[in-house]
Amino acid sequence: MNWYAIGFFTGSIFAFILGIFVYLRNRKLFLNKIWCLQCFSVSLWYFGRCMVGVSIGRDEALFWNRVLYLGAIFIPFLTLHFFLVLVEQAREKRALLFVGYGFALVELVGFNFSKLFVKDVISHFAFGFYEVPGKIYFIHFLVYWVPIYGVWLLIKEHQRTTLLLKKNQLRYVIFASVIGFVSASTSFFPLIDLKTPPIAAHLSTIYVFIISYAIVKYRLMAITVVIKKSVTYFFLIILFFVPCFLIVLLSEKVSFDVFSYSFSLILFLLFVFAAFVFPRVKVLLDRKGREIFFKDEVTNENVFYNLSKTVTQVLEIDDLLEYIVDIIIKTIAVKKVSILVLDSDESKYEIRASHGFNGEIKNLLLRKDDFLSRWMEEKNEVVIREEVEEEISYDSRMNLINTKMMELDSEVSLPLIHDNRLVGVINLDKKENGGVYSYREFEMLKALANQASVAIENARLYDMLRKSKIHMRRADKLASLGTLTAGLAHEIRNPLVSIKTFLQLLPERFDDNEFRNNFLNLTIEEVERICRLLTELLEFARPSEPILKEIDINDVLEKVIMLAENEGLKKNLVIHKQYVSGLPKVMADKEQMKQVFLNVILNAVQASYENGEIFIETRFLEGEKKFVQIEIKDTGKGISEKNIENIFTPFFTTKDGGTGLGLSICHQIIQEHKGTIDVQSKEGNGSSFIISLPLNPEESDNGQDCQLSEKEFIERTVR
């Protein structure tokens, strides 16, 4: 075999593999499909050229020559099509492509099998047989240069585009095209002078590799790196295939005492094809076989796979654990399941979810210093009670594990390890059918444990942070109450002084009917005012679970103003109220809305100068979505630009002794109600807080949902 044939053979294998690889990377992309077809055409041309070179007789060489042109005829038009797709002009140039492919079919059917195209083949000692061109062969030679038009379009697109990634891709597609067409054009040399070999035709394989690499790796590296990788991989393939083929030839010579290049090449190609296809066929047959003969097992694996994706998205720890238990029961069918999770004190593992237990469930407890928990944390392995019992005879510690597992009704204990800490344990009893756990079930359970440990730890932290958020809200309420206390004491003391004065005068003027009537009316009025103040104060201070119900925003504002107006009187502020009559009710938590309004109004009071004004206005916005809007505006000092962007950030404050939680909590509460709170302010010109609440949060997508806003609040707080 000559070295030219070996080079073409290697290029054929390389082009074929690259075509399949590019196609499999993205089957839906039309660019990949066109390039795959072009690689197949190049591969067929290379293979045919190789077989012509190793043919023994003239007829065999002529046959393979017809075969190689089955690929060579389509290469120019597939290349042009590829370039047009790359510059996004294939649709507008489809008439040109239609004519091109039509001409290729005519050339294939009408010319390729005619002596007018290739009239004969001649043998050359260096590179085997080569064709003798017929009278119309020059047409194919001219068609070969058709892709130059495509290269010109690539250059124009490279100059036009401003996208760096696209520019880089076009740059080395152009570079690869020049290498490919210059090297492939040397295959015409022997047609002009048989003594001149096709010196660089094999190197057109580099063109195939570079463009394949460009398609697969869209975020491209430097062109020098691409060239180095191309050359490296090309020679690696040569170093792999050539020795293997020589071994086949040598084996044939030793076994049959004869060389047959065609037979050896076909045999070698079959081996290569088998090596390439067998792993994929094996995977396919394995999957199909399991789907047919082990359908339940495959279904269970799919369920566990979906579970692994789901558990990391659930933040409510109780929901997460119940979901895990439910999946285990449905897929493995065990009698009892329990999940123990590390408690907040991190001293013991408490039962948080279970199935199959009766009243004895409260007794399920695993302490952090128990030998079983320490063993699982150290080993991070599944503990199987049957194996533990076998080891008791030569390891007395196993008896401690066995006893604890019996207490937990556990045949299998799965450790849930996160950051080398045991955060929980999944305990499984015997299976319903009395069978043993299979190897695949253990593998699925281990995969589940890995995912569940991360999810449970995240849920635990989320639960702790959410409780911290609740404590912060209550602390903010208490801070507001502290601000109001002095003013409310004054509000309560004034009417009591009036009542005391009347009581002191009553014995002297008891017979005065007018005095007694005035005293009675005034006393009733002042006592009712005190009762209202105390009622609002108690309602505001009392911890309560959030309850969404229809509330009148005007009424809520009025009650909040009653609590806060005495703070305004200290600065001689005037509060202007402008409520829209007939304002629609909104679905909201009344106490949370009170907390928001009180925070904003107290901030307005504190930011205002003496003898200033505060404007409180409500309005109804009716559009695609219906909102109630509340604006609270003051005439105070305003907020600087650099502080506005941080105004809702937890712990950010410009006030001495402030916590920085008030407005951040307001922001979070409004988000939970799918609303928005915005601030408009200019330093020295006061501030305006605008709160927009949808009539029904469940029907609005204006804000984030409650769970997401909690996450955002926690992340911002931790940050």
UniProtKB/TrEMBL annotation:
Task: List UniProt keywords, sorted A-Z.
Answer: ATP-binding, Kinase, Membrane, Nucleotide-binding, Phosphoprotein, Transferase, Transmembrane, Transmembrane helix, Two-component regulatory system
Q: Which domain of life is it from?
A: Bacteria
Instruction: Check the record and name the InterPro entries matching this protein.
Output: GAF (IPR003018), GAF-like_dom_sf (IPR029016), HATPase_C_sf (IPR036890), HATPase_dom (IPR003594), His_kinase_dom (IPR005467), HisK_dim/P_dom (IPR003661), HisK_dim/P_sf (IPR036097), HisKA_7TM (IPR031621)
Name all Histidine kinase domain ranges.
487-697
- Please give the catalytic activity noted in the UniProt record: ATP + protein L-histidine = ADP + protein N-phospho-L-histidine
Name the SMART domains for this protein. Answer: GAF, HATPase_c, HisKA
Is Amino-acid biosynthesis included in the keywords of this UniProt record?
no
EC identifiers of the protein? 2.7.13.3
Matching CDD domains: HisKA (cd00082)
Q: What is this protein called?
A: histidine kinase
Database matches in Pfam families = GAF_2, HATPase_c, HisKA, HisKA_7TM
What GO terms are given for molecular function? ATP binding; phosphorelay sensor kinase activity
Give the residues annotated as coiled coil: none
Membrane-crossing ranges are 6-24, 29-47, 67-87, 96-117, 137-155, 170-192, 198-218, 230-252, 258-278
